[in-house]
Structures are given as structure tokens and as C-alpha cells.
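Repro:
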Amino acid sequence: MLNKRLVLASNSPRRVALLKLLGYYFEVIPHEIDECIYSDVSPTELVQNLAFLKANDVARKVENAIVIGADTIVLHDMCVLGKPKDTIDARRILSKLCNSEHDIISGVCIIDVPSKKKLLRIERTHIKMKNVSEKEIEKYVSSGEPIDKAGAYAIQGEGGKFIEKIDGSYSNVVGLPLEAVQEMLNKLIKDTNA
């Protein structure tokens, strides 16, 4: 059982909705980290670094709390695909992903304040996307759903119909690997109560 404030260092509506599924009461305090994609680190280092920076940014502003930070990327052919800049970019990204496989990689960082105990974890989910026609891509892009999503699709929305196979955590694809978060919280609670 948590005997501290739980804080989510994000204002992502998807992460907020997912964390609610674990049944904890928590506060949302958005981080102020620039989420630029740095090309000089590996994709796993990138999500770990950003998850830590987000959690740490908020951890410095709170007292007696457990802070969760997360970052998620889409990796296709060793290229990181972020959120599309516009509808043209969304079409380009979806055309790349269609009839191929990609990974959703998340970094999760949980920091205990004031002890500064930190847990960091990577979660990877493998996705196979169907062969989607240009007409279907066009219709999906015109719905507006892909615009603020990494990889230009939402598995929990209309984009889910393009997915042929998923290997790993479904919630990771949505934006927060709940199984990993629960295990990390359990470990932190056990360690702090020991």
C-alpha cells in the first residue's frame, strides 16, 4: 500500500487514463522537459533518459512523493518514428509501417522523494501491421486521430484495425506499460518498508 503521494509526470490523457486502471489515487504534474529526439544515443537509452528526465523534473518540485515518468517511441527499421508533423507526414509514417513489423519501446522511471531511490525499466512490444491500402490510410489520416500519436496511429482507437499481431504489453503500445509500473511500485513499496 502506498503511504505517499503518487505523481504522474505527464499531461498525456492516455497515460492518465491508463494509470487510473491500476486503482491508485494520483496527481498529475506535467514535466517541463523538451522531448527532442537525440540521434547520438540508442533508442533504449533515449526512452530511459527521457523517462528519467521527466520524473526527475517533477521530483524536484514535490515533497514526500513517488513520481512516475515515462517515454514511448516507435522503432521501425532502426529509425525512431515520432509524432507526425502534419497529415502528409502521418501518411508517410503509416505507409512505412504498413505490411511490416515495428517495436514500441517505453522507458519508465519511478523516483521516491525524499530518499531519491530510483527504478528504471524498459518495456518492448513487437507489432505486425497489416497491408493497409492507400485509401484506408487516407481515410484514417483525415479522421485526425494519427496526428498526436507516435507512429501515427492509436491502437486503442481506429488504428487498432490495422494491427495484425501484437507480442507483449498492450498498454505499452497505448503509452504506459501497466504491468511494469505495478511491479516497480511493488518493489519500491517493499524496499521502502523494509
